[in-house]
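quick one before i forget lol
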Amino acid sequence: MSADTATPLAKVDSAVSGLSSSPPESKGHRRASSSAAGVYNITDLEKEGKELEIAKETQKLNWKLNTSPASLDDKESLKKFLTTPPVKKIDLHFPLGLEVTARNLKGVTIKDALDAIYKQFKKKQDDELELPILAGFEWDKEESWTRLIVHQKKEGQAPSKKKGKKGAADDE
């Protein structure tokens, strides 16, 4: 075939039949965040002057900082929010200067706070920790609105042992 006899090729577009050639414009912008309703940013609470209230359950846990929070018997209290109103993130300040941050876009729970602390202490041996038991948290708005002070103690009231653990009778 020669080039003079062939008909010129027409441009074929797959989007010709009733569709617009531009991409669909229904795509919205990126999702702002997956945070739940009623969960606040702690800096916003500070601007509004809203007071924080810490869950009292944290004082009763008698949790050892270098053990996993999953080993606690009181699973229900782990699901509760650490503060009222719930916040997306909060700094946990230790008296010796260490600071860890607990985050959860759906509201920081007691478990989130314990997980953040555990991550720092899981490699420490019992004898390396001077005050190994969590006594609770304190919010001092005079010192810093955005962080909680972590209180520790030497011993808890009879730490709960799992049943059937080898050597449990030897510890007493």
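fyi Residues 42 and 87 are 6 Å apart (CA to CA).
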